[in-house]
Amino acid sequence: xxxxxxxxxxxGRSAAFRIxxxxxxxxxxxxxxxxxxxxxxxxxxxxxxxxxxxTGVSPYMETVFExxxxxxxxxxxxKPVDNTLISEADIVLTFEKGIKDHLxxxxxxxxxxxxxxxxxxxxxxxIDEDVGDPAKIAExxxxxxxxxxxxxxxxxxxxxxxxxxxxxxxxxxxxxQNKNKDDRTTNQ
Length: 188
Known about the structure:
Layout: E1 2-7, H1 13-27, E2 35-40, H2 43-51, H3 59-68, H4 83-88, E3 91-94, H5 97-106, E4 114-116, H6 117-122, E5 142-143, E6 146-147, H7 150-173
Parallel strand pairs: 1-2, 1-3, 3-4
Antiparallel strand pairs: 5-6
């Protein structure tokens, strides 16, 4: 099973999700066989930043990982989403409605595997509640209804992505429950 997490610049939400999901996978064998990758839809910005050697997570995320997630490798190389990444993924998870809609337009043949992350978790495609983007939050603006700054927003977003990573991985490894005991079969 391969998950592709997609946000705008692949230096915030999708990167945090991938980094934390990889850490979770490495700490519990029940997640073996699940691979996680990430990408961003803003190809121009990703390539422009690469020219300036800005290829990893945002500086705010680096600070949060160093202070709050010691021992977790946050090495990351940003990349733009492309047809190969979408084609190879079993599930494509987005962090806001606009990104999901953009991917629907770019990759209509793969629409059936593109979800907002909360839509995937609930099993309802029309759930599009965004995961806050610290890159959009300037000093003094609101993050999920509270006054904050970018470092605090990055910290909250990373914690939110950690919870979402656990939930997504758990959903994937859940075994279907039989509704009727009589439907169970045993090899005796």
